[in-house]
Task: structure prediction
Amino acid sequence: MSIYTLSQDQIDFIEQNFFEFSFDNEDELPDKTLFDQLRHPAELFYLAHIYNWDDGTDILQWVVDSPLCSKATASLIFWRSQPDYYRRYTLAGDSSVALNDGEVLSLLHSIIQKYENNDFCSIGLAFDPEPELESLTTIDPKWEVPEALFKKLEGIEIHGPS
Result:
């Protein structure tokens, strides 16, 4: 088993710039130049793990679109989005979708495409989706959850500083 330890500096940088960044000023936008300073898939996983969805999906879309995005990170974001709610809409878009729902739906579509194309960084992180899974109860869903998103992923475990 391999372990990657995030430094306190890495944790502080992520939390200061991407955790509840809009709570003091709801008009504040995330800074892509700060995001581009992240250099390891474990940093993106940590960011996705602590992320407050009330800040919107922009940063999460950056994470998914990043060449540093791992299967573990994409899976975490997927399950935290509460995908069953969005299965009532088509992935390609639906004119009845509210703006915020459309942004999450687009994020889910990106994750599924990434899985279909196996377009992830070569550094594999460990992730067990079991604690994140939700019941899929939508009647007549417009799309199915790929089987790969249910699978436990073996790889590098992420730890914080001791």
Notes: The longest helix spans residues 99-117. The CA atoms of residues 76 and 129 lie 7 Å apart. The chain has seven helices and two strands.
